[in-house]
Specification:
The complex is a heterodimer of chains A (413) and B (492).
Chain A lengths: L3 H15 L10 E11 L6 E8 L17 E8 L2 H8 L6 E3 L5 E5 H5 L3 H10 L8 E5 L3 H7 L8 H15 L7 H10 L4 E7 L27 E9 L2 E6 L1 H10 L8 E6 L7 E16 L7 E14 L10 H30 L7 H5 L5 H7 L1 H8 L1 E13 L8 H4 L2
Parallel strand pairs in A: 1-4, 1-5, 5-6, 6-7, 12-13
Antiparallel strand pairs in A: 1-2, 2-3, 7-8, 8-9, 10-11, 11-12
Chain B lengths: L2 H15 L6 H11 L8 E7 L4 E7 L5 H14 L15 E4 L2 H9 L2 E6 L5 E5 L28 H11 L5 E8 L5 E8 L5 H13 L8 H8 L11 E3 L2 H8 L4 E5 L5 E4 L3 H5 L3 H4 L2 H31 L6 H11 L6 H21 L5 H18 L5 H14 L5 H21 L1 H17 L1 E2 L2 E2 L39
Antiparallel strand pairs in B: 1-2, 2-4, 3-5, 4-5, 6-7, 7-9, 8-10, 9-10, 11-12
Helix pairs in contact in B: 5-8, 11-15, 11-16, 13-14, 13-15, 13-16, 16-17
The chains are: A alpha/beta (413), B alpha+beta (492).
Chain lengths: 413, 492
Amino acid sequence: MKNPLLILCLFLLPLLLGGCFDQKELEEQAFIVSIGVDNTNQKGVFRFTFQIANPEVGNSASGTSANEPTQEVISVLGTDFLTATNAANATVAKQISLNQSRILIVSEKLARSTDFIYLMQSAPSTVDIKLNAQLVVSKEDAEKYIRHNKPQLESRPHKYYQYMLDRAKETGIIPDAPIVRYFQITEGDADLFIAPYTTTEEENPKFGEEDHYKAGEIPVNGKNQTQFMGSAVFKEGQMIGTLTGEETRFCLMFDSTLTQKDIIASYTDPVKPEFQVAGRLEINNVDVNVNYLKDKQSTIDVYVNYSLNVYAIPSTVNYMKNTEKQRLLEKSINKQIGERADNFIKKTQEEYRAQPFYWSLHVRSKFLNIPEYEKADWMNKVYPNAKVNIHLELRGLEFGKIMRESEIKEVRD
Amino acid sequence: MFPWQKNKTEAIEKRKVRKISRNMKDNVAYIEEQYSFGVNFDFESRSLQGPAAKYHLFFYTTTVSTKQLNDDIIKPLLASKKPIPIDRIVTVSSLNSIKNMDDVEKGLNIGSVIIFQDGVAEGFEASIPDFKHRAIEKADNERTVKGPKDSFTESVTTNISMIRKKMPSKDLIVESIDVGVRPVDPVSLVYTRDLVNEKVLENIRNRIKKITVDNIRNVEVLEQFLEERPRSLFPTLLYTERPDNAANYVSEGFVVIMMDNSSSCLIAPMTIWGFFHSPEDIYLRWAFGNFSRIVRAMAYLITLFISAAYIAITNYHSQLVPIDLLLAIAASRERVPLPITFEVLLMEVAFELIREAGVRIPTPLGPTIGIVGALILGQAAVEANIVSPIVVILVALSGLSSFTAANYSINHTLRISRFLFIIAASFFGVLSLLGAITIWLTYVVSLNSFGVSYFSPATPHTKSSDGTYFRKLLKNVKWRPGYLKPKDMDKQ
């Protein structure tokens, strides 16, 4: 304590020895917007595709060069995320930073292979990768997908993914699938994980009801063929099938951990069945009640409250003023949704023998301890044999802005 | 005691004991010699031959009112036909009898006229001071929109009169303590007798008495002698130029320290909150006052931490930044040659230069600084790719925010602390920034102002008006600040 200068020096020593240990200037980093992974012929070796954003594009600062491309896409081979970034540094001058990438695209081929779960094991231990990045499955190779995806309106590539995923999640045609959920569900070993399904290749497009598609089946004319629709189903960390947009909506509808804001869908007009009634469906509340019976068939009651805002009644049936017809419409819609939902649940019970609704959350509380729960085997024994009852309740019915439909007969006299 | 101090005290003692002589000639010769009459051009020694007696007047022509001197002293003296005592002739409100030469000196120094009568071993001091000082002007440094506009001026009598006007009460005491020796300067302590804590008052008195320096001309200098830790970044006395602010504090039990030649006063003891509260908070309606407190609180945080946080986040924690902002920052930094830390420091120093120059620059040259500052340092530096525009925004923001501080003393504290945090953040990012903040806060909490904890009433918690962060409705304010231990806690 005699020499204050010495003490000061001792204080400064750790600072000097530490020497800005983790510091990296922003302009010395290359920010990866999306990561694509494909499998190769070699087991354990993957092809990683990195889409790097060019910060100078879309910036109004003076003196920036206008002719640079918005992004650079490079593909390298590697065994896990970090080694791949290292390999990519062979061509990219800056340090590759994965911490801003919000989307991890995996080809369907890789997702269906047994290698996939091994690849994913390296994701959480890679400090850079955010666990809330979305896991997306592409129909074609991820590299091809990234190279083909050419958004027309968004000058910066990350914007496209951000808006696309956000909007598609709101409408419920694709699920919210952060990487962390993949791990939660896979390790929980009781439910199915669903991830958005996407493609840039159009394949036998056909017109159907708005959500009866999977990615690639939607007839869209335009420069960018990228489509996000439906979802890929993972069982025990491996992809086993795909769901259409409608089925994905059911998944979200019955899952109390996920939200969807507005589903615009059309249903058959009960009065004039050749027409459709289109409206916005809003789920208010989902309640799942599992009645677990040991050695007997368990029952699962799902209570869904929703409200409907009818936008289009092409049949010009006057539902607005006629409460009886409204009741008819309500019944019909409940029946339509219920039938489709029942079919879907049957499909999950028979085909997948597991459910993508995260219902294991509601059954866990029925057991005293974990060994008992594991012994009951929700995934393999309880759910596939359970009786599922869907109770739909329409809480509010509204009709757009107008109070009545045009009297087409009178117009056409 | 040092020899030179001994000499000084001896001379003073000698003056004190010298009595006024019955022989006026002796007195006149002594005083004329003492005051270098003839060399000292404004020292006047004048003899008057009245009809009844002989008088002699001493005064400084520059410090007494000539009109009063003529009308109230010289005229009556010359007119009096009978040899009656001076105190029955002179028509001045303040007239004291003096016995020794020390009183003569004191009287002359405060602008009195000293009157001797031949054959009387007694002098008279007629106080007719006319020291020149500024008129009462608007408060320039602590402006408010709503509330009184007057400010202290460089005359302590005027200043005290302003406080008396605001608090007309017999309990308002103005106590005077002398400080220094050449010359002696009086320090006035203003407090409310039935509120002030005696221990605090005694503490202040003692510290003033202990000052051994030759002279202290104003409270700005006095402040540094009174402070417990003069090297500290944190001021422990509130320096204010607003009489309403001073009066508010006095009525809470605080002590106001005043001196002549200062257009401000000191308020002691002070906690850190006093520097963040503006008198306008009380004048504004409840919602508006609290809104302005929120704005100021934000400004303090911005000025302390925004540059440091920017450095920490961009250098070490880029995953915290939304990608759009990150790309914008990266793009703007593409051509900047300096690392972020130096870029920020460069701009912060540039801002400090503008500020310092702005204070010192003569008014006619004022607009130049605006052009130089705004154009060259802002626009041109960005266009020349020396700094990125985001840094200019940040530094402007933190510089601007530092001036929302309700008190000028704390403004320096904030600005210097900011540099500490910037440097801290550049070492290990948020980790070292948080470390620096912890040490900084620990230090602040450990401070004391005249025996009062610097962070009270927040910590240690005491009963108070509960107006530390947000003020209450005035009718709900029940207590005076408990950390002062006033004689009367109850406000209602």
